[in-house]
TrEMBL record:
The keyword Translocase does not apply. Signal peptide: none annotated. GO terms for biological process: piRNA processing; spermatogenesis. It comes from the Eukaryota. Its EC number is 5.2.1.8. Pfam families: FKBP_C, TPR_19. The lineage of its organism: Eukaryota, Metazoa, Chordata, Craniata, Vertebrata. This is peptidylprolyl isomerase. It is an enzyme of class 5 (isomerase). The gene is LOC113084177. Keywords: Isomerase, Repeat, Rotamase, TPR repeat. One of its GO terms (molecular function) is peptidyl-prolyl cis-trans isomerase activity. It comes from Carassius auratus (Goldfish). Belongs to the FKBP6 family. The keyword Protein transport does not apply. Transmembrane segments: none annotated.
């Protein structure tokens, strides 16, 4: 493309005033006509391509998004997450560094796909970001919100666990060679002061985070979320027997999820450990029996696998997952016995040849 003898490459590095001087109507100018000014100052323009559902992204959310950023006259994005099947969760106010993008996300809903034009003050400023972003550049972002979680309550709760040390204490720690990331101390009493309902909401959010990571095959991240929740449960000071009972029940889904996560991480011994912790709380838990059976099968401990899965089948005789795994166990055990017989046969035949 050329305009007034200037190539599209040159146009990328022309200031907006220069373009107007040449009488050039740029692609972004044409796009802006069909977009909505979300702030009223013309700094962020938005076009909804596909509407989402539910409430908009809250201020302190953690979001999972696909996005691509473009400068004018360029078909290739200067940054994109399109190559990622499961983009990581990003915390608003911390991980989303482009000011305009964060403000734009607050107007979006789950499942929404929108385009934004960000003027320089909401993007890369007067200087741009050489060599990819020219000075005073308006940038186009295409954004899709895959999912989000309101993590404000969790963040506030976790902040209660830390207190900043005074200057003298920091000096002592430095002299003792304590690393920077240890300049905080745990204050469990502050976490214990929150109500049980708030505490349970924090745990539910942690489980939702973990489940979201698990469903996106980010098993290490899921494991950390589940383990954080277990640490909170173990540190909680119990007020009475009723609270103790409720928190014991809350441990079960986290322990079961940890067992399954370790199976996905190909660590069956750890999976068995967490499954057994569930059985310590509730010996009749069918899912725990099934998880322990899975773990034993992965470790080729066929007899223990048979014991766990038989107990699980007795409680749910028509469960397809249990019955399928029992069939797999039977095949694996048969294969194991066949190999044992073959190995013994070769050993005996070798001995006979030596005797001759």
């Amino acid at each position: 493309m050329s305009t007034n003898g200037k190539t599209s490459r040159i146009l990328q590095f022309m200031a907006p005033d220069e373009r107007r001087q040449f009488g050039i109507e740029t692609p972004f100018h044409r796009l802006a006509w069909q977009m909505r000014d979300i702030l009223g100052d013309g700094g962020i323009l938005k076009e909804v391509v596909h509407a989402g559902e539910g409430p908009p992204v809250p201020k302190h959310a953690s979001v999972s998004i696909h996005f691509s950023g473009f400068i004018e006259y360029s078909d290739a994005p200067f940054e994109t997450t399109s190559h990622l099947k499961y983009p990581r969760m990003m915390k608003l106010g911390r991980d989303v560094t482009l000011y305009g993008l964060e403000l734009g996300l607050l107007t979006m809903k789950k499942g929404e796909f929108s385009r934004f034009l960000f003027k320089p003050k909401y993007a890369y400023g007067d200087l741009g970001c050489p060599p990819h972003i020219p000075p005073l550049a308006t940038v186009l972002y295409e954004v899709q919100v895959l999912d989000f979680l309101d993590s404000a309550q969790v963040d506030e709760f976790m902040d209660l666990s830390r207190v900043r040390l005074n200057a003298f204490s920091l000096l002592i720690l430095l002299v003792c060679g304590v690393p920077d990331d240890q300049f905080s101390i745990v204050r469990q009493d502050e976490q214990n002061s929150v109500s049980l309902s708030t505490f349970l909401n924090v745990l539910d959010t942690q489980r939702s985070f973990g489940n979201l990571c698990f469903n996106k095959k980010r098993y290490e991240d899921a494991r950390e979320r589940y383990k954080q929740a277990m640490t909170l449960l173990q540190n909680r000071e119990l007020l009475d027997d009723e609270e103790k009972q409720r928190l014991e029940e809350m441990k079960l889904p986290f322990l079961l999820n940890l067992s399954l996560t370790y199976l996905k991480l190909e660590k069956p011994q750890k999976a068995l450990c967490y499954g057994q912790k569930v059985l310590d709380i509730n010996p009749q838990n069918t899912k725990a029996l099934f998880r322990c059976g899975q773990a034993c099968l992965e470790m080729s401990d066929y007899e223990k696998a048979q014991d766990y899965l038989t107990l699980a089948q007795a409680k749910k005789p028509f469960d397809p997952d249990i019955n399928t795994l029992l069939k797999k166990l039977a095949l694996c055990y048969k294969d194991y016995l066949d190999k044992e017989r073959e190995m013994c046969s070769k050993m005996f035949s070798g001995l006979k040849r030596m005797e001759k």
